[in-house]
Each structure stands twice: as C-alpha cells, then as structure tokens.
Design goal:
single chain, mainly alpha
Length: 103
C-alpha cells in the first residue's frame, strides 16, 4: 500500500516523497489534494473521505489507515455474504416445511 501511495504522491508532487514526510510541509495545496484524493480512490478502490488526507498526512499513516479499513471492509463483506446465505437457507427450509405440511 505504501508503494502505491508513494507513486501517486510522486506524480502529484512531480518529485520524490518519503513515506514519513508530511504532505502539507512539502507544500501541498488544495488542487494537489483533490488530484491525489481522486487518484487514491480510483487506484485503491477505497471510499476515502478527503478529511482522511488531513488526518493521515504521511504515506505511512495513510497506508496504515487504508490497510486497516480494507481488511475491515473485507470482514464486513464476508459477514454480509454469510448472513445472506443463512437467510436463503432459512427461506428454503421454510418453503420445504410449508410444502410438506398437510393441507
């Protein structure tokens, strides 16, 4: 994740950036911020609020945040999929029980 973000920030800043360098201290302005935000969302496929770039102003911090959130997102997605499977199984059992019930 750090490599991906470093590449994005290098393009935005048109130069090197270290993983622990603060974007704002390097001279980031609003247009750069929006360009970086758009690229990060597209490349990482994350629903990242712009405010997160202010909360996590280094590549290392932002990468840790995105990694933590993506693993949480996968876990939530897995739980939703399992819940959906359980609902479908319950619906099938209910349909079978109703079909077998004497009328």
């Amino acid at each position: 994740m750090e490599k991906v973000l470093t590449d994005i920030w290098r393009d935005v800043f048109e130069g090197d950036i270290g993983t622990d360098e603060n974007y704002f201290e390097l001279g980031m302005h609003s247009l750069m911020l929006m360009r970086a935000h758009e690229r990060i969302c597209a490349v990482v496929r994350a629903d990242l609020p712009v405010a997160a770039l202010f909360q996590y102003p280094t590549v290392r911090d932002l990468a840790a945040h995105l990694t933590m959130n993506s693993s949480q997102g996968r876990r939530d997605s897995d739980l939703r999929a399992r819940a959906q499977q359980q609902l479908q199984a319950m619906a099938r059992r209910k349909a079978i029980a109703e079909a077998e019930r004497p009328q």
